Amino acid sequence: MVSSSSVQTTHAGPARRALRTAILAGLALFVSYTALKALGSPWAVDDFPEALAIKAELMPVIFPLHMISGGLALVLVPLALLARRWPRWHKLAGRIAAADVAVAGLTAFPVALIAPVTWGSALGFSAQGAVWLGLLALGIANIRRRRPAAHRAAMLLMAATTSGAVFFRVYLALYAMIGGFRHYELFYAFDAWIAWSLPLLAMAIWLKRSGASPFDPR
C-alpha cells in the first residue's frame, strides 16, 4: 500500500522543478532585459537623467564603453559558468568574459568619479569595480596554478558582484515606487553599496557552508 506521504512527495518533485525552472527563466529574462537596456543606453542619451547625461557628455568614449561592456558582462559571465561541462567552450567563454570584465571594471572608476551623482555613490561604484577586478585577478591566478575549485569560487563571487548591476536597478525602481523621490540621492548612494555587496556576502556565506574558498590551495 502506498502511503499518502509518498504520493505527496512524488507530486512535489515535478512541482518544485517547475517552480525552480519558472524562477530561473524569470531571472534570465530580467537579466537579459537589463543587459539590453545597458547595451542600448549609449544611444539613448536624450532619455538620461541630468546627472548621467553630464557623464556621457564629459566621457564620450569611456562612458559608452563602460555601459556596453557592463551590459555584456551580465550575459558573458553566466555563460562562462554554464559552459563548465564543456572545457573547450568554457575556456573560450571564460577568456571573452574576463576581457570584457577587465574593460568594464577599469572604466568603472572614471565613470564613477567624474561628475559623481554623490560622492557616496561614486565610492560605492568604485569599490564594486575594485572588488570585481580583484576577484577576476584571483580567478585567473587560481586557474593558472591548477586550482579549479578555488577558481570556481572566485568566479562565483565575481558573478555575484556582477549581479549588482541588476539589483541596483531593482532597488532604485522599488524605492521610486514606495518612497517617491524624497531623499533620492541618499538612497542612490546607499544602493550603490548594497546592490553588489549583499549578493557578494550571500555567495560568500554559501561557499563557506559548502566548503569552497577562492583561497583554497588544493
Walk me through the structure.
The chain is an all-alpha fold. The chain has one domain (4-209). The protein is 81% helix and 0% strand. It contains eight helices and no strands. It has helices at 4-40, 50-58, 62-82, 87-113, 119-144, 148-162, 164-179, 184-209. It is globular and about 50 Å long. The N and C termini lie far apart (50 Å). 28% of the residues are buried.
List the helices and strands and how they pair.
Elements: H1 4-40, H2 50-58, H3 62-82, H4 87-113, H5 119-144, H6 148-162, H7 164-179, H8 184-209
Structure at a glance:
This protein has 218 residues and is mainly alpha-helical. Helix content is 81%, strand content 0%.
Q: Tell me, briefly, the overall form.
A: globular
| Tally of separate helices | 8
> How many individual β-strands?
0
The overall pLDDT average reads: 82
* Helical/strand content category: mainly alpha
Helix content: over 70%
Number of domains: 1
Backbone CA Rg: 20 Å
Order of helices and strands: HHHHHHHH
Percent range for β-strand residues? under 5%
Largest pleated sheet = none
Give the uncertain stretches in residue-range form.
4-11
Give the N-terminus to C-terminus distance in angstroms: 50 Å
